[in-house]
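Quick one, tokens below. Sequence please?
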């Protein structure tokens, strides 16, 4: 599944993005921003729907607004209140919420 392309429909057309190239996906209002090293695609979609198309071995929901590709994680930091932050291969930092604490535990075991 990770080799499969994800179809992203934007106002500029339909794009095929290899799952391994996706660094993370962010929910922004009624839209998603799909970040790769080369570009950012904005689509009208939801995290809830798109996560069903992603390979569960590589993609994890780290926060209500983020899905991250574990292959692109470079650092995980625990916060003071059970939350934390994740640094990705593009030097972007995304939130890790307490709600997804199991994800944090799994990450710290695997890194």
């Amino acid at each position: 599944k990770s080799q499969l392309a994800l179809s992203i429909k934007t106002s500029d057309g339909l794009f095929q993005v290899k799952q391994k190239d996706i660094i993370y996906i962010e929910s922004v209002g009624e839209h998603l921003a799909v970040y790769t090293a080369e570009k950012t695609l904005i689509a009208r979609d939801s995290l809830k729907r798109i996560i069903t198309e992603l390979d569960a071995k590589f993609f994890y929901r780290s926060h209500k607004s983020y899905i991250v590709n574990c292959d692109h994680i470079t650092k995980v930091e625990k916060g003071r209140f059970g939350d934390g932050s994740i640094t990705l291969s593009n030097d972007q930092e995304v939130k890790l919420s307490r709600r997804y604490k199991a994800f944090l535990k799994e990450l710290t075991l695997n890194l």
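The first strand starts at residue 5 and ends at 10. Residues 101-110 form the longest helix (10 residues).
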